[in-house]
Structure formats: C-alpha cells, structure tokens
Amino acid sequence: MTRGYNPSPEHPTYNKWWRCQDCGKRTFESRKGAKRVNRMTGGNMNVYPACNGQDGFHLGHLPGVIKHGQKTRSDLYGAA
After folding, report:
1. pTM of the entire structure?
2. 23-77 pLDDT, tens per residue?
3. N or C: which end of the chain has fewer CB within 10 A?
4. What angle do CA 58, 56, 51 make, to 5 degrees?
C-alpha cells in the first residue's frame, strides 16, 4: 500500500490554493507553487494569472491559438 504525499500547511513545499470565484479553477498563491503542482501532475499545463486581476495563478491547457502559432503567450496574456 502506498501513501499519498500530504504535507502539513507549515511544510515549505505545501502549495496553498483556493477556488476562483469567477471560473472555479484552483488558484495558487504563487507562480512557483502552480509550477510545482504542474510538474507533479505531468507538466503539460500553462501557468497564467488569475481571472479579472485577482491575486494568484491558475493552471490550464494552452489555448489552440497559442498551440498552433497564431498568437504568442504574451500576445494573449500580456507581458509577464
């Protein structure tokens, strides 16, 4: 039997997140925390700022216009 990784909130690698009130996606406290979760889940998601200028960052699939080269990330999300 294997156990899942479940650090306490005081642990330095704990990723703080909450649900976005606009879209329902997980919102991570920091870009670094979102990237960490992305790596832990396969690394095929995009980290981007939360909805409507809220604090935090979301994880999501890249839009088709970016995947197909019609726009860049900075065109769509603004310069980082």
Report:
1. 0.63
2. 888 899 889 889 988 988 888 888 888 888 888 999 988 778 888 889 887 887 7
3. N
4. 60
